[in-house]
């Protein structure tokens, strides 16, 4: 543009997200006092770049009145309207309102808590509504400075995962109990209702080992050498010694685990207890401990939480996919303690296995289709098939149906695993009070040894290194 012989240029810049537009005045400083910029010039420059929405008239006026102030400076002259992203959906559990009132130990007259004589177990009745899906919202579109709509990011839809002894409505938005029993979440967060088997005292020689297709409630202790297995949950109102407990759902132990390096505790969902000592504990989701974890091997698919009033971890090996959190780690004696977070090797191995299985199934499908193709050619040429070829056609057709079902199941599980891996949060180790020397941290392949005390710190991986930041 020119004013007489004076030259200047209005350079329009649009942000990558198209939500901001700016103008840079390009000119020689010696020419500025002779330059006259009109609003028409500015709007014409914006129009050439299709900027039409959210134009700030005050900014345009300021540029025209005081061009010397904006030489080689990016002046914001238009702002679009950002989209409002959708809200993720959620799952509500109406049955909890009724069971929470009944659940829990009662306080006796002397102030002690009676864990052994719970008057009720949180049951649900046949036909009771257990879960309700609250759908995600789509969000609200925005508008770019060029007047084009900007699509919002839709909220993530929740997934109801019905398990055993439950039914869904036709729209697949609600889950109901199909029998009387107790709700149990098993591996992959499937919701089930299982019947209940109760032991009114200890699991000892008078009771023997237990293997029950449902939920097991033990009102006493589980002694050394005994085994309890359940397809639902296991609830122990006393303590567990060196025994073997395995539940597809969750395991709750009121008075703690003293295993003396014997037996094991394994749950498909959560393990919750007051303390763990010299034990081997594995949970598909969370391990939640109110007091202490000492000299034990503890593994959790997602989190190990030991952040009660004491919340101390000393010795042993702890592995979690997402987070380990405690008040105190180690002691003044620098007892060796190993903390590992950030990798879900079992999921990655499963994904690799699924992909390999899918390749094999697709190859078998190809061969099956090839065989059916040959038989169809024979049928077209001769008009009928010999008995052996008819038998082969039936076998191949049945094989194809089986393979198609297998592909459907593998693809479904592949999506679940991929979604879980994509949804991984940054791994962390959180210290709420103090971490003493002697701790070995492992984040994937990165290793860090603690050589001095830390207070209120979150350890994470940042720029390829294990870094500590103060917890607020």
UniProtKB/TrEMBL annotation:
Region (Disordered) residue spans: 135-161
Signal peptide as annotated in the record: none
Segments forming domain Flagellar Assembly Protein A N-terminal region: 11-187
Residues forming coiled coils: none
Protein's name in the database: DUF342 domain-containing protein
């Amino acid at each position: 543009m020119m004013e007489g012989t004076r030259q200047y240029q209005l350079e329009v810049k649009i942000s990558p997200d198209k939500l901001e537009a700016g103008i840079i005045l390009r000119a020689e400083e010696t020419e500025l006092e002779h330059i006259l910029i009109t609003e028409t010039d500015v709007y014409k420059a914006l129009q050439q770049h299709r900027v039409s929405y959210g134009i700030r008239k005050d900014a345009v006026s300021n540029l025209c009145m005081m061009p010397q102030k904006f030489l080689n400076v990016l002046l914001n002259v238009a702002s679009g309207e950002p989209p409002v992203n959708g809200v993720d959906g959620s799952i509500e559990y109406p049955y909890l309102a009724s069971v929470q009132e009944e659940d829990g130990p009662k306080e006796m007259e002397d102030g002690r808590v009676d864990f052994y004589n719970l008057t009720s177990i949180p049951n649900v009745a046949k036909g009771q509504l257990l879960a309700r899906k609250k759908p995600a919202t789509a969000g609200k579109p925005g508008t770019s400075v060029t007047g084009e709509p900007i699509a919002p990011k839709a909220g993530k839809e929740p997934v109801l995962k019905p398990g055993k002894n439950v039914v869904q409505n036709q729209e697949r938005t609600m889950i109901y109990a199909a029998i009387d029993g107790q709700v149990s979440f098993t591996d992959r967060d499937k919701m089930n209702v299982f019947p209940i088997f109760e032991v009114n005292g200890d699991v000892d020689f008078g009771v023997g080992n237990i293997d029950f297709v449902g939920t097991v409630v033990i009102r006493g202790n589980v002694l050394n050498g005994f085994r309890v297995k359940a397809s639902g949950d296991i609830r122990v109102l006393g303590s567990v010694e060196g025994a073997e407990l395995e539940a597809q759902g969750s395991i709750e132990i009121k008075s703690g685990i003293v295993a003396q390096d014997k037996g094991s505790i394994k749950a498909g969902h959560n393990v919750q207890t007051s303390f763990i000592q010299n034990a081997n504990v594995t949970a598909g989701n969370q391990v939640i401990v109110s007091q202490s974890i000492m000299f034990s091997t503890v593994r959790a698919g997602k989190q190990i939480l030991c952040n009660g009033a004491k919340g101390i971890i000393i010795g042993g090996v702890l592995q979690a996919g997402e987070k380990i959190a405690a008040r105190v780690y180690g002691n003044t004696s620098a007892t060796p303690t190993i903390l590992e977070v950030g990798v879900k090797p079992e999921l990655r191995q499963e994904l690799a296995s699924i992909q390999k299985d899918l390749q094999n199934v697709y190859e078998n499908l190809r061969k099956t289709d090839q065989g059916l193709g040959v038989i169809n050619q024979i049928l077209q040429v001769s008009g009928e098939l010999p008995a052996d070829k008819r038998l082969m056609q039936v076998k191949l057709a049945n094989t194809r149906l089986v393979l198609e079902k297998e592909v459907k199941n593998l693809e479904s599980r592949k999506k679940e695993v991929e979604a879980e891996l994509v949804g991984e949060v940054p791994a962390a180790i959180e210290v709420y009070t103090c971490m003493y020397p002697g701790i070995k941290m492992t984040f994937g392949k990165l290793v860090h040894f603690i050589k001095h005390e830390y207070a209120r710190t979150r350890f994470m991986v940042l720029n390829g290194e294990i870094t500590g930041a103060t917890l607020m």
